[in-house]
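Sequence design from tokenized structure. All designs in this work follow the same two-part layout: the structure record, then the generated sequence. An example of the structure record is given first.
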């Protein structure tokens, strides 16, 4: 019984585990973390606001486009963090991954498939990393859902 209680089982229900904190150096105010904090403070998460990605979709800002269909657009990141770094974005603006619902299931699966096929076309046979940043603490600096695909080198762990 003591082992069951130690694992958090009380009267047949699981007690939520206390979150573990990873102590690390304070975040810098520059780079993507700084941009994410500025975007959150400026209220850029508000839906309906045009983003740099919506401007890439409507071609008012240029980008190196790798793939496009009726649901998504794939283009190279302008500040690559790996030898191969591209973004997969839905054409329908979704501000954050934490804001998706059941109606987005098909679109999210499509984005993942397109990411995998584009990674293959980009020669990432040895693997790659897929990253979705969410909110200020996740270092999301553009509030239009986007998948980062990074590859072409050995990735480190832990990532952040």
């Amino acid at each position: 019984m003591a082992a069951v209680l130690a694992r958090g089982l009380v009267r047949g229900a699981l007690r939520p585990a206390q979150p573990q904190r990873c102590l690390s150096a304070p975040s810098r105010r520059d780079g993507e973390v700084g941009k994410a904090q500025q975007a959150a403070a400026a209220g850029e998460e508000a839906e309906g606001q045009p983003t740099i990605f919506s401007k890439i979709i409507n071609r008012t800002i240029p980008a190196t486009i790798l793939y496009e269909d009726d649901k998504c657009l794939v283009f190279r990141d302008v500040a690559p963090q790996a030898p191969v770094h591209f973004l997969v974005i839905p054409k329908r603006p979704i501000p954050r991954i934490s804001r998706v619902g059941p109606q987005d299931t098909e679109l999210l699966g499509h984005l993942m498939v397109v990411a995998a096929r584009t990674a293959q076309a980009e020669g990432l046979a040895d693997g790659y990393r897929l990253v979705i940043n969410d909110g200020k603490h996740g270092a999301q600096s553009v509030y239009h859902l986007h998948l980062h695909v990074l590859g072409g080198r050995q990735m480190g762990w832990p990532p952040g």
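The radius of gyration is 19 Å. We note this feature because it recurs in several other targets discussed in the main text.
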